[in-house]
């Protein structure tokens, strides 16, 4: 995890860099940030130049500095990591971006907007990257965002304690300073279609709409009160924290026993947020073993430090209400009116891992008492745009199909896509990597389109 460095600490850390003849750290960065050059500039005390170098490749360095899995990417490729003292590249990136903000450094001039007009749907990392890259290439870019504020998962998913919302807002302001226009509360599909956007004269349209539909469990009791999806819960918490919603609407109460189903990063965020919202006990239930959890190792370590319990090899079978639990425990009590409607426990099946590595039910069952279950078992794309626009094909799970040439174009000419809506839920930097290639594809498409139009005149 990145840490905040003082100027002296940052320069000293940068000076530890060996300036390798063949720098492998850069291979570990999905967007190929020029890590050796920015670290060299920083080691010489030239933070402005370091920011200029980073800005050539990244529109979101303060965010990447905080949430990228550096330990799996650039930092794991640093030769010094072999001696357990690799350069803290994430912390240096965060330092440079924060320094540039505090000192109002703006190395890149605003877009002239003369090269063409692009509509970007969605303002998560994918949309912001495409918008920023195209603005830098002098396209006029307008973002259409369905929510009341831009940022996507950066704003409404990743919790405040890992990524400050001020940092997200500030990095988005850097993009508007480049000339990107942002229109919020514009849900494309139901409110306004892709065809209507084309009618407004956009040369190309980009869809970076993410995966907003959370998966749920189709098991008995799913209608009980107290079952939430992680993305909904995290969004409610952001809205409550910003005063836009009453705290009671986050649907978790102080002293609750909470079960989180799933063991990815979203599950860790939901579990750690539940702790911060006053849950008494938080237990992560996962159907595989500790070795199979998909969250970043640092997230798992933090969750354990915060007292979150892990119950591996358990598969949810049914949500139980109070009456059913009383029957299981054989306790006689007058049933209250709520007993049929309120969640009181999760019935789970015990799973065993065989010698072949398969996960099979071993016949045993157990009930785990809880007041709230938060489901973090994956997300998939909504069909708002593809169901209202002809010609955009998706695969059998709803993910948008794109082409290699021009990179990122969907099966509808002029409509491009990338990010989670194409490759499935992944990371900020993967959405950025793909979106940078798509921005280049859009530029290529618009230039070719305009050239043909000129030839026809
Ligand atoms: C809780 C959580 C924690 C995470 N933590 C990390 C982390 O620490 N590090 C990391 O690298 N990755 C993390 N990820 C993953 C990462 O955030 C995503 O991979 C990334 O945000 C995907 O970017 P995107 O732009 O494709 O989609 P999103 O960020 O989902 O953005 C899509 C945007 O499109 C908008 N939209 C959707 N439909 C429409 C429409 N029809 N009209 C207008 N607007 C629309 C949405 O409102 C949203 O703003 C996390 C994800 C979650 C859910």
Task: Walk across the major sheet and give the strand order.
Answer: 3-2-1-4-15
Report the span from N to C terminus: 57 Å
Which regions have little confidence, pLDDT < 50, spanning 5+ residues?
A: none
* Mean pLDDT score: 94
- How much helical structure, as a percent, in the residues? 25-40%
Total discrete domains: 3
Which ligands appear in the coordinates?
A: flavin-adenine dinucleotide
Q: What integer value in Å does the Rg equal?
A: 24 Å
Named at the architecture level, the CATH assignment of the largest domain is: 3-Layer(bba) Sandwich
Please give the CATH class of the largest domain.
Answer: Alpha Beta
CATH superfamily of the largest domain: FAD/NAD(P)-binding domain
Question: How many helix segments?
Answer: 16
Determine the CATH topology of the largest domain: FAD/NAD(P)-binding domain
Describe the structure.
There is one protein chain. The protein is of the alpha/beta class. The protein folds into three domains: 7-102, Fumarate Reductase Iron-sulfur Protein, Chain B, domain 2, CATH 1.10.1060.10; 117-212 and 381-456, 3-Layer(bba) Sandwich (FAD/NAD(P)-binding domain); 215-379, FAD/NAD(P)-binding domain, CATH 3.50.50.60. The chain has 16 helices and 15 strands. It has helices at 7-15, 35-43, 47-57, 61-67, 74-77, 89-102, 125-136, 153-156, 165-177, 194-199, 230-241, 265-276, 297-305, 322-329, 420-423, 428-456, and strands at 117-121, 140-144, 181-183, 204-207, 213-214, 227-229, 257-261, 281-285, 309-311, 314-321, 343-353, 359-369, 372-375, 379-380, 415-417. Strands 3-2-1-4-15 form a five-stranded parallel β-sheet. Strands 6-13-7-8-9 form a five-stranded parallel β-sheet. Helix 12 links the parallel strand 7 (257-261) and strand 8 (281-285). Helix 2 (35-43) runs antiparallel to helix 3 and helix 3 (47-57) crosses helix 6. 46% of the residues are buried. Flavin-adenine dinucleotide binds next to helix 7, helix 11, helix 12, helix 15 and helix 16.
């Amino acid at each position: 995890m990145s840490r905040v460095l003082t100027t002296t600490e940052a320069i000293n850390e940068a000076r530890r860099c060996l300036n390798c003849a063949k720098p492998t750290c850069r291979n570990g960065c999905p967007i190929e940030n020029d890590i050796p050059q920015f670290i060299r500039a920083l080691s010489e005390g030239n933070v402005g130049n370091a920011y200029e170098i980073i800005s050539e490749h990244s529109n979101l360095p303060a965010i990447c500095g905080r949430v990228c899995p550096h330990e799996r990417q650039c930092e794991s490729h640093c030769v010094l990591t072999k001696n357990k003292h690799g350069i803290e590249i994430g912390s240096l990136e965060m330092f440079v971006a924060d320094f540039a903000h505090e000192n109002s450094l703006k190395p890149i001039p605003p877009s002239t907007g003369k090269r063409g007009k692009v509509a970007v749907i969605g303002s998560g990392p994918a949309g912001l990257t495409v918008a920023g890259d195209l603005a830098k290439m002098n396209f006029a870019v307008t973002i259409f965002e369905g929510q009341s504020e831009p940022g996507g998962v950066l704003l409404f998913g990743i919790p405040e304690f890992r990524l400050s919302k001020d940092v997200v807002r500030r990095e988005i302001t850097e993009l508007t300073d480049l000339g990107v226009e942002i229109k919020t509360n514009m849900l494309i599909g139901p409110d306004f279609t892709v065809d209507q956007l084309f009618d407004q004269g956009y040369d190309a349209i980009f869809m970076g709409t993410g995966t907003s539909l959370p998966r749920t469990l189709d098991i008995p009791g799913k209608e009980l009160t107290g079952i939430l999806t992680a993305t909904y819960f995290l969004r409610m918490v952001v809205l409550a924290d910003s005063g836009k919603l009453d705290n009671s609407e986050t649907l978790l109460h102080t002293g609750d026993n909470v079960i989180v189903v799933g063991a990815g990063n979203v599950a860790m965020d939901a579990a750690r947020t539940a702790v911060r919202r006053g849950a008494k006990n938080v237990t992560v239930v996962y159907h595989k073993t500790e070795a199979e959890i998909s969250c970043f190792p640092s997230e798992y370590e933090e969750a354990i430090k915060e007292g979150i319990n892990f119950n591996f090899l358990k598969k949810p079978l049914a949500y139980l209400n109070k009456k059913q639990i009383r029957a299981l425990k054989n306790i006689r009590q007058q049933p209250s009116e709520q007993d049929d409607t309120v969640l009181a426990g999760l019935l789970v099946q015990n799973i065993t891992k065989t010698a072949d590595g398969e996960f099979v039910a071993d016949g045993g069952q157990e009930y785990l008492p809880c007041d709230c279950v938060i489901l973090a078992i994956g997300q998939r794309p909504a069909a708002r745009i593809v169901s209202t626009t002809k010609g955009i094909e998706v695969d059998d799970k709803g993910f948008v199909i794109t082409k290699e040439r021009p990179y990122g174009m969907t099966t509808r000419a002029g409509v491009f896509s990338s990010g989670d809506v194409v490759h499935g839920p992944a990371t900020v930097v993967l959405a950025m990597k793909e979106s940078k290639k798509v921005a280049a594809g859009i530029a290529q498409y618009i230039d070719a389109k305009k050239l043909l139009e000129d030839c026809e005149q």
